[in-house]
Amino acid sequence: MRILVTGHDGQVAQALAEQAQGHELVFTAYPEFDLSKPETIEAAVARIQPELIVSAAAYTAVDKAESEPELAMAINGDGPGVLARAGAEIGAPIIHLSTDYVFDGSLDRPWREEDPTGPLGVYGATKLAGEQAVQASGATHAVLRLAWVYSPFGNNFVKTMLRLAETRDALNVVEDQRGCPGSALDIATAILTVVEHWQREGATSGLYHFTGSGETTWADFARAIFAESAKHGGPTAEVTGIPTSGYPTPAKRPANSRLDCTRFAETFGYRAPAWQESLAVVVDRLFAAGRPA
Ligand SMILES: NC(=O)C1=CN([C@@H]2O[C@H](COP(=O)(O)OP(=O)(O)OC[C@H]3O[C@@H](n4cnc5c(N)ncnc54)[C@H](OP(=O)(O)O)[C@@H]3O)[C@@H](O)[C@H]2O)C=CC1
Ligand SMILES: Cc1cn([C@H]2C[C@H](O)[C@@H](COP(=O)(O)OP(=O)(O)O[C@H]3O[C@@H](C)C(=O)[C@@H](O)[C@H]3O)O2)c(=O)[nH]c1=O
Ligand SMILES: [Mg+2]
Q1: Closest ligand to residue 253's CA
Q2: What is the pLDDT of residues 11-29, one digit of tens each?
Q3: 63, 84, 224, 237: which one has the fewest Cβ atoms less than 10 Å from its Cβ?
Q4: What is the DSSP letter of 249?
Q5: Which numbered ligand comes closest to the C-alpha of 239?
Q6: Domain RmlD-like substrate binding: where (predicted)?
Q7: Of 280, 276, 277, 183, which is closest to residue 229 (Cα–Cα)?
């Protein structure tokens, strides 16, 4: 199947490129394809004539978004709606990626798809607008909310921790934000599972959560990263858990980012491995590739 994937160097886009044997992936990349310029989106869809669209590109700089709200809204809020409408015109369903940051983090259990949203920052608000634009587009859609994405590619928390540990022996990391990291390698598997399910049974619209299994805090995630790094003789640092107030950032982040992934597992028959297992796979790959960060 011919699949248009937005973004080329993004974590999820690169993981898809590795795994999508049997499909023809066509990547659209900035600046020729610019989610803040509707005409470039429409031109890409008209040229590629995809049978399905994976909407993976986004403005993902959470703190920077606080000072660029219009640009973040154009890219995350408006662009996906233009893309989905262009797809709808040629009958292409869309898999659109969203985030745990659409929630305010106040609940004391993992968030379900229908729980009330309430983004704390600009990034989350713009991603919520993007979900709603896709849902209103007329396209058949799966909106997949992810969280804490990491991979051997691009920028992410795992690579940041390994890089910082090269020059520091101790790091302060917040321990009052809970969530579950999602490996882009597992996310690519999940996306292709949706594609194949739709090929067999026809596409239907829905909203889903997908992360690794289990839960952790950023501090314990960092400790696990260094434990894996140590197995390879890589850089490590002592992690001191601190409250969010001890690591001031422009954007507020949810205290509870845990997502309940039951609906995805029941609908598509795939659940990600325990986050610790997926982390080991990614750290192994980083070391196999040479320098970890
Ligand atoms: N990273 C995370 O922790 C999480 C991500 N998500 C969501 O998952 C999806 C995939 O994330 P991930 O793979 O990590 O993203 P990345 O940040 O790795 O990649 C984002 C991609 O979007 C592209 N992009 C940025 N601005 C534009 C623009 N104006 N027009 C077109 N493309 C643009 C980037 O291109 P360039 O490099 O050229 O700027 C890059 O290829 C996103 O929708 C994100 O919101 C959800 C939860 C967590
Ligand atoms: C680097 C560093 C971060 N932190 C904290 C800040 C933050 O609360 C947490 C994670 O840092 P990051 O900068 O990776 O977080 P952030 O960029 O907010 O990550 C988010 O990205 C977007 C795109 C999403 O959609 C979310 O799911 C989530 O993955 O760790 C420390 O406490 N110490 C440190 O040394
Ligand atoms: Mg060190």
Answers
A1: 2
A2: 999 999 999 999 999 999 8
A3: 63
A4: -
A5: 2
A6: 1-286
A7: 280
What top-level class would CATH report for the domain 2-154+181-212+258-272? alpha beta
Atom of ligand 2 nearest to the CA of 60: 23
Q: Decide the pairing of beta strands 238-242 and 170-174.
A: parallel
What is the DSSP-derived secondary structure letter of residue 52? E
Pocket test for ligand 1, best of 18, 19, 28, 30 (most atoms within 8 A of CB): 30
Give me the residue spans of the domains in the chain: 2-154+181-212+258-272
Active site residue 30: no
Which helix (H) or strand (E) is 279 found in, with range?
Answer: helix 275-288
Give residue 168 CA to ligand 1 midpoint distance, Å: 28
CA distance 28 to 31: 9
Q: What is the DSSP letter of 256?
A: B
As for the ipTM of the complex, it is 0.98
> 0.95 exceeded by the pTM?
yes
pLDDT in tens, 143-179: 999 999 999 999 999 999 999 999 999 999 999 999 9
Characterise 163 by phi-psi region: left (phi > 0), alpha (psi -120 to 50), beta (else): alpha
